[in-house]
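Why should sequence recovery work at all? Because a backbone constrains its sequence more than one might expect. Tight turns favour small or flexible residues, buried strands favour hydrophobic ones, and helices have their own preferences. The token representation captures these environments compactly. In the example below, the structure is given first.
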């Protein structure tokens, strides 16, 4: 009785093949996820900026129309302003937590892509520092997104 063909594969060959599949899977995942994560960075930036801007506009609107709506409570304007400030601060903190998660995903994809390029440029080294500082820097979302997209384009095709 003959042994099935798949039964004749030696264990080291099977392990090597599995390793190659794993490597290609990680590479494909990183390359395909880069545009999605870049989109998340941009989306967060746009959504967050608009939300905070809307809250400031509502605060200003309440301030402008306070006397009309509350003629018997002129001192309430200060309380209302402080309440708005507290709500805005809370919204900024909450969005900061979501921002950190988006940046963690972006940094993971960045590291995966860097493992697949033949050399790292000075820009790659600088971006490593930028990504480490990004959780505190809400102004760099689009810049980080563009870098990730460019990095994905630099990954050579699989062999």
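From this structural description, the recovered sequence reads:
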């Amino acid at each position: 009785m003959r042994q099935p063909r798949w039964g004749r594969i030696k264990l080291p060959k099977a392990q090597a093949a599995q390793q190659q599949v794993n490597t290609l899977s990680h590479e494909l995942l990183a390359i395909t996820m880069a545009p999605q994560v870049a989109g998340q960075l941009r989306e967060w930036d746009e959504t967050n900026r608009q939300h905070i801007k809307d809250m400031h506009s509502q605060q200003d609107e309440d301030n402008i129309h306070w006397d009309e709506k509350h003629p018997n409570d002129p001192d309430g304007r200060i309380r209302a302003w402080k309440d708005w400030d507290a709500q805005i601060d809370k919204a900024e903190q909450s969005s900061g937590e979501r921002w950190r998660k988006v940046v963690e995903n972006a940094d993971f994809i960045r590291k995966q892509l860097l493992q697949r390029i033949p050399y790292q440029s000075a820009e790659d080294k600088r971006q490593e520092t930028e990504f480490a500082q990004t959780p505190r820097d809400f102004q760099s979302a689009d810049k980080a997104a563009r870098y990730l997209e460019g990095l994905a384009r630099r990954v050579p095709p699989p062999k």
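A few observations help interpret the result. The first helix runs from residue 11 to 64.
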